[in-house]
Amino acid sequence: MRMEQLSEIAFDKASFWVKAYNVPAVRQTRAFAKFLGDKVGTFVKCDEDEMLGTDKALCFRAEVDVLKPLRRGVMVKVDGKAIYMDQI
Known about the structure:
This protein is mainly beta.
């Protein structure tokens, strides 16, 4: 069995839990979490039982390219209206 050397491992992607604030109540769904996750990076998953955090934030996991600058939020259209979704 060959062990990988640390120098051979690519550290270009990481999976993070994302909290999206200012999400309208009608958009607090798995489908919208996937939409936002794919805007931030690549949607991985969300726990539908715990999707809406105690601080009223939509929570999901996304894989992000860590070689690019992290996004503080995204502008999306919801029902024809542009809304800025804060993320941490």
